[in-house]
Amino acid sequence: MQPPKDFFRPLALGAPMPVREVPARPSRMIHFFDPSNEKMAAKVPDIAKKADVVLGNLEDAISADKKEAAREGLVSIAQATDFGETQLWTRINSLDSPWCLPDLIRLVPAIGHKLDVIMVPKVEGAEDIHYIDRLLAQLEAQAGLERPILVHALLETARGVANVEEICGASPRMQGLSLGPADLAADRRMKTTRVGGGHPGYVVRADPNPDDAEAPRTTFQQDLWHYTMARMVDACATYGIFPYWGPFGDIRDTVACEDQFRNAYLMGCVGAWSLHPVQIDIAKKVFSPEPSEVAWARNVIHQMGDGTGAVMIDGKMQDDATVKQCKVVVELAEALSASDPDLAAAYQAATDAVLGAGSGQ
Ligand SMILES: CC(C)(COP(=O)(O)OP(=O)(O)OC[C@H]1O[C@@H](n2cnc3c(N)ncnc32)[C@H](O)[C@@H]1OP(=O)(O)O)[C@@H](O)C(=O)NCCC(=O)NCCSC(=O)C[C@H](O)C(=O)O
Ligand SMILES: [Mg+2]
Question: What pLDDT sits at residue 284?
Fold first, then answer.
C-alpha cells in the first residue's frame, strides 16, 4: 500500500522537508541526564565525548517543582556545548501533562537547530505522533529550522504495544522506539517493581523425578520482556526505524544490566539507555559487535562471492540469508569504526588474522 501522497510533505508552510530515510547514526547508548541537576549538567561536555547520544530528561525522575529548571537547564547546556558527532536528544513531558506544550514552545526556537531527536513518553497510538508531527512542523517553520527534528516514541503502555505498528508508520519523523519496562509493567498490572531484567518468580519447572518424588525440581527463569521486545523490533524493522531497550534500574547490578542489554542486542535492538556513567561502558561493550564476530562476518561475505548459493565454512552452512546477517554486523561495525578508532583497529586486526593482512576488508 502506497503512503498517502502528502506523507513526505512538510506539515506546515516553511517547515523543513521530512527525511525519506532515518540516518543510521551510532546510538549504542542514550545517556540520560537531569538538566536541573547542576553537578550532572556540568558533566555533560565530558560525557558527550564518550556517549553516542546525550538526552536531557524533562519527564519522569524530574520532580514537578524542577520541570522549568530542567527545561531552562537543557537550553543553557545545549547552547553552551559543542556536541561534535554526539547526538543531542530530549525527553519531553507526556502529552497530557501541563508541561509538554511549554517544553516544545521553549525548546524548538531556542535549541531546535541542535536537537536531533525528541523522545515522546507514553505514546498510545498514531494520533499522538500526528499531534507532535504537525506541532513540530509549525514550530520549525516559525523558528526557520533547516532540518526536521526526529521523533522517538516510548513504548510503555499496553495500548501503545497494541498499536506499535501504526506508531512506527505514523510519520517520516519517526526515528525509533524504546521499551519502557517500568511504566509498561504498571500499565499492564504486571507484579514486578523492577525496572527491566528478569524476576525470580517467572519460571518454568522441570517434571518431577519419576524415581524420587521428593527430589528438588529444577526451575528455569524466563524473560518477562521477550514478547514485547520482539513486537517492537518487528514493527521498527518494518518501517526502517530503530528499536532500543530503555532503562535498567538496578544500577549496582552491572552484570544483570549487561545481560539485559545483550538480550536486546541479540534480538535486534541497536542500543539502550544509560542512567548512570557506569552503564555507558556496558552499552558500548554490548552494542558494538565483537571483533571476532566482525572477522567471521567479513569472511563469510568474502567466501560467498556474489552472495548467492550455499557453502560450508568451519562446518556451518552459509547461504544468501547468512550473508545478509553478516552484512548487518559488518555495516554496524563500519559505522561505529568511523567514530571510534580503537574499535576500527580491533576490527581490522581481527579481520587480518582471518583473511590475511591488508585484506582490504
Ligand atoms: C540514579 C541516580 C539518582 C544515582 O545518582 P547518584 O546517587 O549521584 O549516584 P552515584 O553517587 O553513584 O553517582 C556517581 C557520580 O556520577 C554522577 N552521575 C550519576 N548519574 C549520572 C548521570 N545520569 N549522568 C551524569 N552523571 C551522573 C553523580 O553526580 C556522581 O558524580 P560525583 O559526585 O561528581 O562523582 C542518577 O544516576 C540519576 O538520576 N540517573 C538518571 C535517572 C533517570 O534519568 N531516570 C529516568 C529514566 S528511567 C524512566 O523514566 C523509566 C522509563 O520511562 C520506564 O517507564 O521504564
Ligand atoms: Mg516511563
Answer: 96
Task: Report the C-alpha gap between 47 and 15 in whole angstroms.
Answer: 32
How many Cβ atoms are within 10 Å of 305's Cβ, its own excluded?
A: 10
- Ligand 1 atom nearest the C-alpha of 186 is 55
52 C-beta closer than 6 A to ligand 1: no
57 touches ligand 1 (CB under 6 Å): yes
Residue 360 pLDDT more than 70? no
CA distance 327 to 305: 13
Given 254, 286, 318, the domain boundary residue is 286
What would the 3-class secondary structure string for 97-116 be?
Answer: CCCHHHHHHHHHHHHCCCCC
CATH code, domain carrying 207: 3.20.20.60
pLDDT in tens, 43-52: 999 999 999 9
Is 127 inside any structural domain?
A: yes
Calculate mean pLDDT across residues 8-28: 94
| Segments forming the whole domain that contains residue 332 | 291-355
Q: What is the 3-state secondary structure (H, E, C) of 234-261?
A: HHHHHHCCEEEECCCCCCCCHHHHHHHH
118 within domain boundaries: yes
> What is the count of structural domains for the chain?
2
Ligand 2 centroid distance, CA of 332 (Å): 28
Amino acid (one-letter) located at 222: Q
Shared domain for 282 and 319, answered yes or no, is no
| pLDDT on residue 51 | 96
Please state the ipTM of this predicted complex. Answer: 0.98
Which of these three, 230, 255, 286, is where a domain ends? 286
Distance 246 CA to ligand 1 centre (A): 14
Distance CA 201, CA 232 (A): 25
Which residues are CB-contacts of 359 (< 8 A; sequence separation ≥ 6)?
298, 302, 351, 352
Strand residue runs (E) in 287-342? 310-313, 316-319
Assess whether the C-beta atom of 225 lies below 6 angstroms from ligand 1: no
CA 124 to chain centre: 18
Between the CA of residue 201 and those of 60, 190, 248, what are the distances in Å?
A: 27, 12, 18
CA of 251 to the centre of ligand 1 (A): 9
- What pTM was estimated for this model as a whole? 0.95
245/351 same-domain check: no
